[in-house]
Write a structure and sequence with these properties.
Elements lengths: L5 E3 L2 E3 L3 E3 L8 H9 L5 E2 L16 E4 L2 E4 L8 H10 L7 E5 L4 H14 L4 E5 L15 H15 L3 E5 L5 H12 L4 E6 L3 E5 L1 E2 L4 E2 L7 E6 L3 H14 L4 E5 L5 H10 L1 E6 L1 H6 L3 H16 L15
Parallel strand pairs: 3-16, 4-7, 7-8, 8-9, 9-10, 10-15, 15-16
Antiparallel strand pairs: 1-2, 5-6, 6-14, 11-14, 12-13
Helix pairs in contact: 3-4, 4-5, 5-6, 6-7, 7-9
The chain binds succinic acid.
Succinic acid (SIN) binds next to loops.
Length: about 300
């Protein structure tokens, strides 16, 4: 066991880092680059039943504080990622598959195929894509989320995780966590997807910066770090039987450390990976190692959830 060793669902990871689904993971070339990187694991682009071109471009825009996107789930269709998962060498590193069906029926069809393939790939069910016009985020509709988890738990009947949107009210943390706690197959919770339906305006051009949805899109990067940490910690406190994957605002080893303190077992990297490429994982691991050593920690497990309150 090394300083950065991590564990999720009883699986060992060389370190806690992986990509956020959607970033550097749409095709085999990108996935292979993550596999070859210093990330401890990696995840495929959220897939749908059939391939999607996604929303019109420009659909991603970076600012000094992060990014806005309205990609609209461009992906190669679930058989492509299932085929990738079939050929992956799991001894090299664990692989997650992100699933984002446009309906309950689509999710059940994809999960039936993934279950039948009987692979070690770990499913993260995306309940929080803010960018498909006419399709609200499932996890903001607690009745729809419950119906989804009931059906998926029956169909898939294996441990899986859920990718959640950010919540902003204690009552919503309580209610969402209570729902998740009713489903023992939901063994990890990924917090957070982008903060949906934000608007970035260029004052020079007096214009929005992305084309879909009149410029509305999900924001990530520095904009979202405190919201991400709050959600990680809120679900860590409320879901003691589940593990948390932190996602949001990570561009330094110190940010990874904050996610671990808040309760994350693994930490995903989105906007900063988009800008810096897969070499970011070696830098983040080096920064995290140096920070842990300076503070006298012998493992990331001894950091996890150790956030102090005043
Ligand atoms: C997208 O493809 O629009 C991003 C996916 C997501 O935010 O869940």
């Amino acid at each position: 066991m090394s300083l950065l060793s991590a564990s999720l669902l009883g699986i060992d990871f060389a370190n806690p880092l992986l990509n956020a689904s959607g970033v550097w993971c749409r095709d085999k070339a990108e996935l292979d680059a993550l596999n070859a990187s210093a990330a401890g694991s990696f995840i495929t682009k959220s897939c749908t039943l059939v391939p999607r071109a996604g929303n019109p471009e420009p659909r991603y825009y970076a600012t000094p504080l992060g990014s806005i996107n309205s990609m609209g789930l461009p992906n190669e269709g679930y058989p492509y990622y299932l085929d990738y998962a079939r050929h992956h060498d799991y001894r090299a590193k664990p692989l997650f598959m992100s699933v984002a069906g446009l309906s309950l029926a689509d999710n059940l069809a994809m999960l039936a195929a993934i279950r039948a393939a009987d692979l070690p790939a770990i499913v993260e069910l995306n309940l929080s894509c803010p960018n498909v016009p006419g399709k609200p985020q499932i996890a903001y509709d607690f009745a729809a989320m419950t119906e989804m988890l009931e059906a998926v738990s029956l169909e898939y009947a294996r441990p899986f995780g859920v990718k959640m949107p950010p919540y902003f009210d204690i009552a919503h943390f309580d209610e969402a966590a209570a729902i998740l706690n009713r489903f023992p197959h939901v063994t990890f919770v990924t917090c957070i997807n982008s903060i949906g339906n934000a608007l970035i305006i260029d004052p020079e051009t007096e214009s929005v910066v992305i084309k879909p949805k009149e410029g509305f899109g999900g924001i990530g990067g520095d904009y979202v770090l405190p919201t991400a940490l709050a959600n990680v910690n809120a679900f860590y406190r409320r879901c003691p039987g589940k593990q948390i994957i932190g996602c949001g605002g990570v561009s330094t080893g110190e940010h990874v450390f904050m996610h671990l303190l808040a309760g994350a077992s693994l930490v995903q990297v989105g906007s900063a990976l988009y800008e810096e490429g897969p070499a970011i994982f070696a830098r983040l691991n080096a920064e995290l190692s140096a920070l842990l050593e300076r503070k006298g920690y012998a493992s990331i497990e001894s950091v996890r959830g150790k956030l102090r309150t005043l």
